[in-house]
Amino acid sequence: MFKADLPGLKKEEVKVEIEEDDRVLQISSERNFEKEEKNDTWHRVQRSSGKFTRRFRPPENTKMYEVKASMENGVLTVTVPKVEVL
């Protein structure tokens, strides 16, 4: 299981991809944030933006085709089930 804190992002803004040939799980997004404050004597605008990408190589005994992702309250949870050993 992978968990990532992504405050301020919506689930539509986060991309979870699987590269089955390389067995890589990739999480990426782009953040654009602007905050504006003003009153009678001053006006301030704060901006921040940036892209991020994180790549993980799950263990060999995982079922890459059964990966599930969910996002709740700014926390992304990616579940990668393992192959059952009998």
Task: Record keyword descriptors for this entry.
86 residues, three-stranded antiparallel beta sheet, elongated, Immunoglobulin-like
Give a quick rundown of the structure.
By secondary structure, the protein is mainly beta. It has strands at residues 2-5, 14-19, 24-38, 43-56, 68-72, 75-79. The strands form 2 sheets. It has a 3-stranded antiparallel sheet, with no helix packed on it.
What does this entry look like structurally?
There is one protein chain. This protein is mainly β. It has a single domain, classed as Immunoglobulin-like, CATH 2.60.40. It has a three-stranded antiparallel sheet with strand order 1-6-5, with no helix packed on it. The model has no long low-confidence stretch (mean pLDDT 87).
In terms of topology, how is this protein built?
Blueprint: E1 2-5, E2 14-19, E3 24-38, E4 43-56, E5 68-72, E6 75-79
Antiparallel strand pairs: 1-6, 2-3, 3-4, 5-6
Determine the strand fraction and express it as a percent band: over 45%
CATH architecture identity:
Sandwich
Biggest sheet, open or closed, and with what strands and sense? Answer: 3 strands, antiparallel
Q: What is the residue-averaged pLDDT?
A: 87
Q: What string gives the helices and strands in order? A: EEEEEE
Low-confidence stretches: none
Query: How does the overall form come out from the CA principal axes?
Result: elongated
Task: State the helical fraction.
Answer: under 10%
N- to C-terminal distance: 22 Å
Count up the helices. 0
CATH fold-type name: Immunoglobulin-like
Count of β-strands: 6
CATH class annotation = Mainly Beta
Structural class: mainly beta
Radius of gyration: 18 Å
* Number of spatially distinct domains: 1
